[in-house]
Amino acid sequence: MVLIGTFTENEDQHYLAGWYMRNPHQSSHRVSSEMGCQIFVKLIQMTEHEVTPTCINTHDPKH
Predict the structure, then answer these.
(1) Residue 53 CA: distances (Å) to CA of 14, 29, 34, 49, 58
(2) pLDDT one-digit tens code per residue, 16-36
(3) What is the gyration radius of the CA atoms in the chain, in angstroms?
(4) Using 50, 70 and 90 to split pLDDT, how confident is the model at 59?
(5) pTM of the model
(6) 29 within 8 A of 23, measured Cβ to Cβ
(7) Closest by alpha carbon to 20, among 48, 47, 1, 39?
(8) Which of 24, 26, 31, 30 is nearest to 52 (CA)?
(9) What is the 3-state secondary structure (H, E, C) of 4-54?
C-alpha cells in the first residue's frame, strides 16, 4: 500500500498514494521511487496457488 509519494515498479508502472498492490508468491519485480515514497508492506499475502497480481486504486469509488 502506497502511503506517501509515488512508488514505481519495473521502471514504467507508477503508483501514487492510495494504491494497493499484491503480487504472487515468489514473484520478482524491480521497485524504485524517484522522489521517495512510504509504503506499507505485508509479505506473503497470497497463497502459492494465486497467480494474478492485484492493483487497486483505493481512491476510485468503483472499488
Answers:
(1) 15, 12, 23, 12, 16
(2) 999 999 999 888 889 999 999
(3) 12
(4) very high
(5) 0.84
(6) yes
(7) 1
(8) 24
(9) EEEEEECCCEEEECCEEEECCCCCCCCEECCCCEEECCCCCCCCCCCCCCE
